[in-house]
Structures are given as structure tokens and as C-alpha cells.
Design a protein that fits this description.
This protein is an alpha+beta fold and about 240 residues long. A hairpin with a 2-residue loop joins strand 4 and strand 5. The chain is built from 8 helices and 7 strands; from the N terminus they run H-E-H-E-H-E-H-E-E-H-H-H-E-E-H.
Length: about 240
């Protein structure tokens, strides 16, 4: 009987030890992933119920106002989607700076903006160079799911996994894409962190092209300026 050298026995023992540790870690991570999935499913269900409830409440208030002969005035929108429609040439310093502050550095870039008095004034300054409006839930979801990229260590990383979100935004209680969509759409308390985590969306030119004169305001037959809920139709063409 030939005995194996001591060094080989040591190697085998170490390999067995590593295999046992790896199997234990794998089993633990599998269990944790399963638990996390349950949490994510519950949260997604909760968000769907919340969105439906908001929609029903809106309809109820409209009907109530109509039945009593009044007009229903919806709340002022808190969220805007801003799309840069003009290139880099022939832009005055002030609008150029505002576009830079809003991270709209390239044509067809899009970002979410919290609507306040200050941001509204900034949007007025860049009116000829950008189109904006109030996105609906479908638009927010489609943009994040299809065009969403994360900013991790100043790098543009595609959101292929919930772990990308959890590593950066886990401390804010945002662990999955549905959490991110909810935070952006409802303009929650951690909107700034969630929005900065998202790299500006890079959209395509709209199907069928822009209208004749992009610099003209939307209400004059152009593409620039505030188009309220009609921004959703533009995003469908560009996404």
C-alpha cells in the first residue's frame, strides 16, 4: 500500500474544508434570496393596491364634484420628466448652466425633477431647449425598466439585478426596482437619493421625427416647453 505524501493530504483536507464552507454559504445565500423575494413580492403587491386606491379616490372626487355642479381641481403635480431637445450649439450661458445642473448634457437625455418654485423657474429658463411634462406611472416604470442605468462609483451600470439597487440605496429602505419606481413616482422622502442614483436616460429620436420647428413652444406647434400629460405620448415614441 502506497501512502500519499503529507502535502497531498493537507491539500485534500483544505479543499474539503473550503467545499464545506462554500456549500454552507451557498445554502445561506439561497435562503436569504428566497426570503428577500417574498419581501419584494409583498411590497410590489402593496404598491399596486396603493396606486389603485389613488386612482379610485381621484375618480370618486371627480364624480362627487360633478354631481354637486362643481369642478374638480386635481393637486399640483410634484414630479416632472424633462427631455433635452436641442444640441450644444448656440445656447446662452444661463440656460447652458441650468441644463448642466439638471444633468441634461446630451440631446435626448431625460431626467426626473421634483417640481418646486425654484425648479419651475429653472425650467422656464430652458424652455426653448427642453420638453417637459407630468409622467404617469406607466412612463416612469417603462423608463426605469427599459432604459434604467445606475450611477455606481461614477460609472454607468445597467440595472440587471435588484442587488445593484440594494447596495446603493439599501440604507434608505429601497431594495428593488419596484421600490425605486414608487419612490420616484410618489416623490417620497428619499427622492433625491433615488434620482441621483439613476443615470440620465438616453432616449432615441421620436418615431416619425420631431415636428417642424423644435424650438417653438408645444402650444405653437413645436416641441419645446411644458406639455403636461402629453409628455407620455412623446416618451412612447422615444423609448
Amino acid at each position: 500500500k502506497v501512502l500519499a505524501p503529507e502535502s497531498v493530504l493537507k491539500q485534500r483536507k483544505t479543499a474539503e474544508k473550503f467545499a464545506i464552507n462554500r456549500a454552507a454559504k451557498s445554502a445561506l445565500s439561497k435562503k436569504q434570496r428566497a426570503e428577500k423575494r417574498q419581501v419584494i413580492f409583498k411590497r410590489a403587491e402593496q404598491y399596486v393596491n396603493e396606486y389603485r386606491q389613488q386612482e379610485r379616490e381621484e375618480i370618486r372626487l371627480r364624480r362627487l364634484a360633478k354631481s354637486s355642479g362643481n369642478f374638480y381641481v386635481p393637486a399640483q403635480p410634484k414630479l416632472a420628466l424633462v427631455i433635452r431637445t436641442k444640441g450644444i450649439k448656440k445656447i446662452a450661458p444661463k440656460p447652458r448652466k441650468v441644463l448642466q445642473l439638471m444633468r441634461l448634457l446630451q440631446i435626448n437625455n431625460a431626467v426626473f425633477v421634483r417640481l418646486t418654485y425654484a425648479t419651475t423657474q429653472m425650467l422656464q429658463i430652458i424652455t426653448p431647449y427642453a420638453a417637459w411634462g407630468t409622467p404617469n406611472l406607466k412612463t416612469v416604470k417603462e423608463l426605469i425598466y427599459k432604459r434604467g442605468h445606475a450611477k455606481v462609483n461614477k460609472q454607468r451600470i445597467p440595472i440587471t439585478d435588484n442587488s445593484v439597487i440594494e447596495q446603493s440605496l439599501g440604507r434608505f429602505g429601497i431594495i428593488c426596482v419596484e421600490d425605486l419606481v414608487h419612490e420616484i413616482f410618489t416623490v417620497g422622502p428619499n427622492f433625491k437619493a433615488a434620482n441621483n442614483f439613476l443615470w440620465p436616460f438616453k432616449l432615441s429620436n421620436p418615431t416619425g421625427g420631431w415636428s417642424g420647428r423644435k424650438v417653438r413652444h408645444f402650444i405653437e406647434g413645436g416641441d419645446a416647453g411644458n406639455r403636461e400629460e402629453f409628455i407620455n405620448a412623446l416618451v412612447r415614441k422615444m423609448n
